[in-house]
């Protein structure tokens, strides 16, 4: 699935994880998927039998010696499914899901409830109510195998006020339509908190109720060769061409009375692919990601800075793109993004590469290199904005300071039939200038950045102009919209230095866009 140049990348030598060498326990599946590759509702209807495999999987994990793994395997009569609520993976112990085997998540919100927090399976002012399906502490361990973890985001809930009425994703939609409760309390698939050296290797993660993979405070995280997708074909149709009335309500009057039966990435809110937060020494390579929010979002919030992040050879499909932020208040330093493909499928809130922050959660973002990116069908191919969500003047006074960002060998392609060609593809360059602070987005280098046609500038509700308070260096390679930049130079504290000296060939994207490698993908 990858060209030889990617597979032979010197930056990856010796970095690929290996499957665990010692198995402490092999657990056979006792459940079987149906023709849609799901579990029949009868398995856990009414909230009974909601997590029949949780206790034996957890018991095996708890008894497993450090340095070994619990392996989930098919049953003797071709059973291929497990059903569980939250599992805890301690330092040193790994989980291996064998090829052809699926670990399904309980659809009973009370199974995930964190005592004393907001109610899991409902919306609230914060989203702290649910445990993840897999809760891990890093320690030379991980989740491995060519099997699948399925969060059942499109399945009808079996407890709480929306029992037998809404799905996890319908609850997510409520956070858009209930103005007084704008956070969804839904479980993540994998949460890794603290410790060192955790691997996510060759796993398919799909249909997460919320984020797929999140790390927090981890030193040494590798995500390699995974397929991450929400929704799959089991909860959608080919091309995401859902019929009217079948999808969640995401604007206007809130829906609390019917379960949706078809979903698109636009209607599975906050299902980010991989969010490395507050973490250092991160390698994310050879992943295919198609989700309802950011493909990858680097976040640095409160507790620790993010540093030494390598994002190499990844393919994004229907996502919001590659993001740094929105939380950057503890600092982001030394990020390399290389050989990235982003296909936005013409959705509204989608980007290629963006840095998004504001003074409610801002901090220093520096030493970021983006080199070798192919983008098409997105609203904002390139964006650096310190007023994310139109937030400014926050009492938090966490001032965003973005500088020393290099974008090189970046190509935006017009695509036949796309609504995001030409000026409908917009760019955003806006530094910070509020609360008595002036922090320009400085030393933004554009080197061999080529769009098939001239884009436009983004427009937002915030009164601060775009572009403004930013300094751009062009070159030595070409910048196809150079005249657009130079014509804005000298206005609103926006400046351009022209160091172009070569006419390099635009970055080659002829083999960049390939199909999502799964038979259960709608695209």
Automatic annotation (TrEMBL):
Top-rank taxon of the source lineage equals Bacteria
Q: Which InterPro entries match?
A: GH28_Enzymes, Glyco_hydro_28, PbH1, Pectin_lyas_fold, Pectin_lyase_fold/virulence
Q: Does Disulfide bond count among this protein's keywords?
A: no
Does the entry feature the keyword 4Fe-4S, yes or no? no
The record's listing under SUPFAM superfamilies reads:
Pectin lyase-like
Gene3D superfamilies this protein is in?
Answer: Single-stranded right-handed beta-helix, Pectin lyase-like
Keyword annotations for this protein, in alphabetical order, are: Glycosidase, Hydrolase
Q: Which family does it belong to?
A: Belongs to the glycosyl hydrolase 28 family.
Protein name per the record: Polygalacturonase
